[in-house]
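Design a sequence for this backbone.
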């Protein structure tokens, strides 16, 4: 921001509300815009030669979060039809990013997991995304960062406690793909 730019209003003002949920949502929207500007630039240049669609990226992240996951469950999580999901899976399996095997409890059903190559692929993308956060947050005073970390950890703990959206940890390197 140059000295000619008007100062950015506190995000709570943008919410125009006394509701703490709306105020935090406005703050998160403003923070997301700052970070996503950096992130999209990095991801766009990184993904150009990879021929990966947004839906395929979403599927990879959902499979990692919920593996082993059925084809039907993946279709529901991604929000596309079963035939479209089957085609998407075929492409990702063909590229070596995903693995598919029979469900031992129901041989008619297929279960999906990321392959080692798929895990590495997402790891590289996440490093790019984290780089965008580092660029934005690298300009912030350490005491502000510590206060934000404390507040975000408290927020995550309450959200997890309320079971609104349990945190899904990425698999550790010792975890075997299907």
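Sequence:
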């Amino acid at each position: 921001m140059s000295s000619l730019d008007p100062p950015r209003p506190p995000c709570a003002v943008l919410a125009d509300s006394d509701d703490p949920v709306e105020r935090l949502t406005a703050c998160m929207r403003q923070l997301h815009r700052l970070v996503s500007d950096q992130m999209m630039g990095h991801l766009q240049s990184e993904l150009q030669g990879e021929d990966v669609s947004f839906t395929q990226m979403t599927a990879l992240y959902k499979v990692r979060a919920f593996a082993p996951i059925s084809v039907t469950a993946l279709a529901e999580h991604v929000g596309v039809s079963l035939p479209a999901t089957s085609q998407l899976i075929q492409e990702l399996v063909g590229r070596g990013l995903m693995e598919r095997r029979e469900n031992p409890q129901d041989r008619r059903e297929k279960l999906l997991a990321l392959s080692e190559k798929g895990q590495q692929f997402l790891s590289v993308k996440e490093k790019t995304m984290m780089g965008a956060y580092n660029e934005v947050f690298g300009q912030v005073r350490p005491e502000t960062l510590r206060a934000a970390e404390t507040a975000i950890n408290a927020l995550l703990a309450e959200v997890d406690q309320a079971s609104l959206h349990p945190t899904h940890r990425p698999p550790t390197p010792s975890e075997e793909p299907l």
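The first strand starts at residue 69 and ends at 70.
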